[in-house]
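Q: Got a minute? One more chain.
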Amino acid sequence: MKTKKGVLLINLGTPDSPKVSDVRRYLDEFLMDGRVIDVGVIQRNLLVRGAIVPFRSPKTAKLYSEIWDSDTGSPLLHISEIQTALLKEELGDDYQVELAMRYQKPSIEDALERLRAAMVDSIIVIPLFPQYASASTGSVIEKTMGLMRKWHTFPRISIVNQFYDNDLMIAAFAENAESKTPASFDHVLFSFHGLPERQMKEINNSGEHRCEASTCKYEINSANKFCYVAQCYETARLIAAKLNLDQGKFTVCFQSRLGKEPWIQPYTSDVLEDLAKKNTKRLLVLCPAFVADCLETLYEVTVEYGEEFKKLGGEHVELVPSLNDHPKWIEALKQMVYAYDATVHPQTKQAVYP
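A: Always. Here it is, folded:
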């Protein structure tokens, strides 16, 4: 008897439309997640629903309207749907591939119900975040397991919790960058999504992890192997090596901070200012925390940082497209599925059935 296997791809999420009401609903679900804003529920409720969401929703809705396509809608959702369709084609009929978003639609709950209805023998969950963070991958895992805990019967479950050093992913990012001719730019930025510094302390059981002491900016080791910062720097180093970039030719930085407390540094805005002071004119920017172009890449980098850099005296900021539908990225996803699938022969990568 042939087995039917499930694959669940999960990205962050997107509002249903750029309308303020839809953006408000999305931000409320996103920011009320205790892994995103990790304070007590009462304090979080007052902060999110009393301050952040009411004031941020109109502004964020305006930003979404700038990138929203009249035909295809949300870029993140549209690209994710393309990735899902391409992976389905690569894997064939033995696999049922579903797409979900951690926040809003398509929901994880609906995707899991489709897999349960199909009576799949296994489910491989792939949170689409290359570097592990509690606020992204951790939240996806917690939500998925929470929804499944009421199931009476369980298929075999596997979770891909990180792939920051995946060879095919690195090659795809490098190829996208090469298409922009990196040598024609003065400097290359690797801009990752930011997180509060306090969340880095929790990556081991001590709760006292410090990136400086663990040399997270310079190497992956036994003390920092779960650290988001260390994984980001390793991703950047691997892509830079593919591009033959000298150490002084690129900088790692972090964008999208929220609130007044310290977030991971250096901040992208500060790096832009520093480079402009050094008479840097042309910047090439990669965002290897995102596997699909979205608000953070299409607007924050291309528009906001582009305008900011020009005001500081620079001339041009060029975004390297994310992985999107790159064939090597789709192949990377397929190989992740095979690597976590116990019914795939390790040598031939062909499915074998009992």
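A: The first strand starts at residue 5 and ends at 13.
Q: Perfect, thanks.
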